[in-house]
Structures are given as structure tokens and as C-alpha cells.
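ingest -> validate -> predict -> emit
validate: passed (alphabet ok, no gaps, 331 aa)
predict: started
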Amino acid sequence: MPKIKDTDYLFLSARIKAMERRLISRERLERMLEARTPEDAAKVLAECGWPELPRVDLECVDRALKQHREATLKDLTSCAPNPQILEVFKVKYDYHNVKTLLKAAAMGVEPERLLISAGRVPAQALAEALRTGDMRGLPPVLRSAAAQAKEVLGGTGDPQQADLVLDRACYEDMAGIAVETGSEFLMGYVRISVDAANLRSAVRTLRMGKGTDFLEKVLLPGGSVETGRILAAAAGGQLEELYRATLLQDAAAAGSAALSGGRLTRFEKLCDDAVTAYLAGAKYVAFGEAPLIGYLAARETELTNVRVILSGRLAGLDADTIRERLRESYV
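emit:
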């Protein structure tokens, strides 16, 4: 495993610190929430350097978010000492696109609007590989998972089974790339991401009334909390105790409340906030790969919050309802 040289990131770390100051602050998010109309809310984005939206509807909002995501990844890939670090953040779009393409083909609909061109593999190249069955040009883990998911969906007609194959492979892919980079901080990010995904799966499984046999199939390896302990805690009603004194303790408490009839909204938010809390440690690192990783994740959280606010405003939701869905900001 290679060793990261912090000094290679001196210039980029300084640039990241400057870029962090342009992230949308909590105060501006509040202004978007309290703006008189969705159009007024969108105007706040222009103050942060976003181009003006031609119109404020979900199609234009999603297009703008895609453009910002792609531009950020392209920019940082061009100047990162080890661009492979950014691949961990691109992987999920490959798997999202495979899911989209497989389901669209099964339903006989066009997938283009839902594809995201921010992965390692161009969306059209993925589409061609799935159409022809020639997947030799895909990264190894993705290639194997896409072929298996296609076969599972074709054999069972159950998209959930295909999604399970792809979700497991996605985190395996992320973990493998993180190890190859030699970044302990990046490996920690993948582990806390797996932990959050597994807690979500446990709560959702129990809430649906499904047993540990089903949960065992959906739990992912590679987290800080072993899957066997999660299964035992789920069976014994001890999830909250299992995650006590971890970054996910608040999320686990909210998950327990959701199992008693409460809503999942706060639980989902706190799972994401736990990952953000881990990444927040990058703000106190003077230079190295950690500020780059933290910024990329912060940018993702920013884009999520913008979509939550604007989609909520367009749907006519009140500010308090939208506010409780916002993820914790990095800045």
C-alpha cells in the first residue's frame, strides 16, 4: 500500500481552504428557506457564484446540480496529486447508472434524464456495455457486478435483488480504491459510510417486519461494526446500545424511535450527519489529502441541501418541514 506524502498537497490544500469559503453557508440556506418564492430562493445561489437558472423547476434544478457536480470532479481531478482518491466519490454514480439502465431496459423507458455523468465510466459507454454484454472495458468489480445484476434481474424480474448485488459491489469497489490510495482518512470515510448504510438497513428491515435472515442478505462487510453484532443487536432490540459512544449514536436513537412508529426523516438525516461529523475532522488538517476528501463530501452535502430546499419549496412545503430534512453543513 503506498504512503501518502502530505507535502504533495500543499498547494491544493491551500486552494481547498479558499474554495471552502465559497460553500453555501447555513445562513444562506436559511435565506433560501425563508425566501418569499422558489424563484427568490434560487436567487440566493447566484450570490454564491451559481449561474442563474433559466426557470425554477425540478428539471432545471437537477441539471444545474449535475453540472456543478461534474465541474467539481473534473476540476479537482486535473490538479490532485493522486486523482485515484477522487474515484471513491465517482464510484457510486457508476452503480447508480447501472441500476437506472437495467430498470429502464426492463420497463421499456428512456433512462437519459436520470443518468449522471460523474462516474468513472461515461454513461453511454455503460449503456452500450449492458446492451451488448461486452463489458471488458469496465473496471473489474463493476464489470462483474453489472453482469450479475443483469442476470439476476432477467431471471427473477425483481429489481431489489439486482440492487442488492450492485450495492454490495459499490462499497467493495470504494473500499478497494481507498486501500490502493494508502489514505487512512479515505479508508475511514468508507468504513463510516458502510456503518451508516448498515444501520439504515437494520432499521428499515425491522420497520418492514422482516427478520434477520433478510437483514443478513443486505448488510455490507467492511464497516467498523461487524455484521454479526448488528444481526444480534437487531434480533435483541439492542441497536441503540450497539452504537452508543460512536458517531452513529444519535442516528441509532432516532432509529429506535422510528421503530416505535416515529418518522424516518430525522433518522435518515442523522445517518448522513454522522458521516459529515467524521469528515469535519479534515477542517483541522493543515495539508494533505484529508482536506480534499472533506471538501468533496462537503460539496455533495451542499448539492443535496440545495435540492432538498428547492424541491421542497416547489412542492409547497413549509420551512420547518424542509429544515428538518437538511443535512448538517460542513461550513
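The chain has a mean pLDDT of 90.
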